[in-house]
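@channel sequence for tomorrow's demo:
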Amino acid sequence: MNIFKRFTNLFTKAITASGAAFSGLGGARWSTRNYENFAKEAYITNFISYRCIDMIAQAVASVPWSVFKQDGTNRIEVEQHPLMRILHRTSPTTGFSAHQYAVASFLGIAGNAYIEKVAPETGPNKGLPFELHVQRPDQIKFVLDGDTKELIGYALEINGKVIKEWPIDSITGLSDLLHVKKFHPTNDIEGLSPVEPAAKSIDTSNEALTWNKSLLQNDARPGTMFIFDGALGDDQFKRLQMQLDKKMSGSENAGKNLIVEGQMKDARPFGFNPKEMDFLEGNWDLARQVCMAFGVPSMLIGIPGESTYNNFKEAREYFWDTTIFFYLQLLKDEYNNWFFPDDDKTFIEYILDDVPALEPRRKEKWEMVNTSEFLTINEKREELGKEKISGGDVLLVPATMIPLDMAGVTEEEVDDSESDMEDIEDAEEE
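structure tokens (generated this afternoon):
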């Protein structure tokens, strides 16, 4: 029986023995849906959702970026571009990796990330940032038009006081504050937090762990219910009901005893112990659900019994293909639209050459290119990101591969040879 059924049976079963009474748990209580609770319950308290968000943020932050310029079909790296400064250090105190780590973490917790740019207003580098600062999502407020209710700007609000404002250009739709968000089906302004669809599983997991800890603090035993002969009077019943409401509901009261007034008849355990509730397996089921919501293969978290993928390498490649590439592509498009609104030739791009998780894929590509017989040396070097060499534009093929007419064999002889081979195969079959 899974953990949900065990919880249901535990708190809703009615005991009808002589003189005994039982109160159900009542409706489930879920955490309030806001950034503060998402950060507390999913990132600070729950180790599974924390690990999922942290793994995504670490992977995104590990990828280097550079500035490129498109020249026809060639992509040329621009090493001296002004933006190269922030692709190494986004502010005097923050490196680019730490910046990306914060952006991806906020997207994982809130579904929104806000990035402020500091850029010159005049000169050849007008609009190109020389500093970037990540703002906390809960401190950013939307400024709406009083008549149309359209978004016209953002404001940084701390302790009820507006510290800074960023208007949105009515023509370009751009602002000095970049809002990166995930898709939300019912909100045109805010993004949907990945924590939202996983919130009930996270809440249940947190409550189950708290319940288990409380039970361990009570000698690892469930509470005891004392059963007495005879019916309870109204006052006795009301006092009993008060005990149930105050002392028997919630994980903080696990293991507490229930006392019924009257002549005692029997005493029996009240509830199930962790083993009877399949506690550990039930919590791992919740962990798998949380991993699914964040797009992290549960094998990478270390969940026991997970065998969706043949090996760890496949799970890691799947993680990069379906989750990390999405975050990288999202940030790439948002950054380029923000940095180069009027330049289609210049852009920043992430570089995957040194990502350890993709090493098997690079090895397969190298073997395929290296064994190719229709590419020149320079074409092979170009595929692998290497510079061309002198004399490398000649196509080399194995010395044994020559045209048929140069081998001194006619087409009729080839046809006769093929016919003879077919006769031999037919004879062997007979």
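heads up for whoever presents: Residues 31-222+271-352 form one domain.
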